[in-house]
Amino acid sequence: MFTSKPKIRTRTVAVTVKKPAPARAPASTSSASSGRRKPSGTAPTGRYSLTPSNRVRTPAVPSREPARPSLSVSSTHQRKRKVTPSTPQWASSSDESSDDDEAGARKRQKTSSSTEPATTNRSLEPDLQRRIRIQEPDSRRQESGNGATAAGEKKAGREPKLVHGLNMSRGEWIKDFKPAFPGSNENLVVELQYPSMSRPERFETVVPYDNSNFNPLDDIYFSMEEIIQHYLPSDLSASLSSETDGAVRLLKRAVGKNSPDDFQAALNDFNSLIRKKLEDKTITKVLDAIHAIPLSLTKRILAQVYQRTVSPYAHLLRKVKGKETTYGELLPPFVHGIFQQTSLNSASVFVDLGSGVGNVVLQSALQTGAESWGIEIMDNPAKYAIRQAAELRARAKLWNISLGPITLHHGDFLESAPIDTVLRRADVVLCNNKVFPEKLNGALLDKFLDLKQGCKVVSLASFVGGGAKQGVRNEQSIANLFEEERFDSGTYSVSWAGESVEYFIATKVR
């Protein structure tokens, strides 16, 4: 047996980090718990928070460390980052949260407009093979965590059930809200028509006492903004976006005037317009002309899914045995950049090892249409991942977007036969191994020997420094199989820190 290290080609890549506007900090959803086994090191604070840590709010200086010894030529990639607000934020999530603040821990996501300015409304490269609009019938298989397909669910009468905004302010949550129109006999219940033939979503016109909680009116406003910007012709979009008499402006004015009748009338007009544009195929033509989903729309849909399935139960996710076994969340703009760098598209296979509540898996299926897999060992995150997937399927129909197939497993990624099989086909593998011990990184590196040539492994700790120090390997079989590049994420990319973090992309070259 041989005990020598594997040799992996490496390159260090410095990324220019643009200083963000100080007024707002982004946050959103992405890959949650990283894990599998007890890692070494200290788990970060706020790893169950979708808001980056507020202890550091200044842009990080790009790394000046010398490049690691490499068999390949070093190069520097300059990549400008635009820091823009994301839709969801968790109000609070401290590792020190106790039973005393459990009531407050149920706070749901604080929302802000997900619409990015036109100059920064980022999209991935157009995927000409992908049809964004749901085709009837949609023949693509969208697998759930228990292996059932969307078609199978339909045959059994178990189509994904939408969690309406109305449900978020009723029942056990009713005490968290007050009327949006004081003085009315009862709260007005309204409907929002989405750009599909699906039935409208229902909302109650209430506002939260705590601004960090779910806000039905904001959900309506932000969803309308996305529909106006991305589903309608530019001239009509410009008219409806007017700050004087645009659709959202009329709704806000009605709230300011305390006029539920004006609010209902303005929303009815918008709904009628959307139905008309569905009937005359205007929305169909717009959707069929695009081949990439904008990041702002991706964030809006993922935020809605997360708000309805995970945020109300954040305190349950924080109460885990051995908090050091998990790390944090990769936020959607960071994940968007990873997808762009790895050229993930609808023909690709994506695997997230340690997928947590499934955020990155869902973003992959939604934004790229890729066949997307995830596996998570912890019980609660795995359970909520299944709930998120079900809600995403229902909500994607509402938004008229065809998803890539989704498969979520609850188990150990080192001992899963289905994961072993799919890894042989994978194009991109994500592993948030930030605090994995060397032995676990070594076991992963052994597993990566079966990856096909050209597969890219994205990690938050280098497999040169982690997995290469442990395990028994044949140097002749692993030497020079990978080329690894180092990147800086830019600020506000992960939930556990506001500063830039390093990450690595290793490509199987032979």
TrEMBL record:
Low complexity bias (residue ranges): 12-34
GO molecular function annotations of the record: histone binding; histone H3K79 trimethyltransferase activity
Keywords: Chromatin regulator, Methyltransferase, Nucleus, Repeat, S-adenosyl-L-methionine, Transcription, Transcription regulation, Transferase
UniProt feature, compositional bias: Basic residues: 1-10
SUPFAM superfamilies: S-adenosyl-L-methionine-dependent methyltransferases
EC number per UniProt: 2.1.1.360
Pfam families in alphabetical order: DOT1
Region of interest (Disordered), residue spans: 1-161
Binding site for S-adenosyl-L-methionine: 327-330, 350-359, 376, 412-413
Biological processes, Gene Ontology terms: DNA damage checkpoint signaling; DNA repair; methylation; subtelomeric heterochromatin formation
Subcellular location: Nucleus
Family affiliation: Belongs to the class I-like SAM-binding methyltransferase superfamily. DOT1 family.
Family matches, as PANTHER family: HISTONE H3 METHYLTRANSFERASE, HISTONE-LYSINE N-METHYLTRANSFERASE, H3 LYSINE-79 SPECIFIC
Function: Histone methyltransferase that specifically trimethylates histone H3 to form H3K79me3. This methylation is required for telomere silencing and for the pachytene checkpoint during the meiotic cell cycle by allowing the recruitment of RAD9 to double strand breaks. Nucleosomes are preferred as substrate compared to free histone.
Protein name: Histone-lysine N-methyltransferase, H3 lysine-79 specific
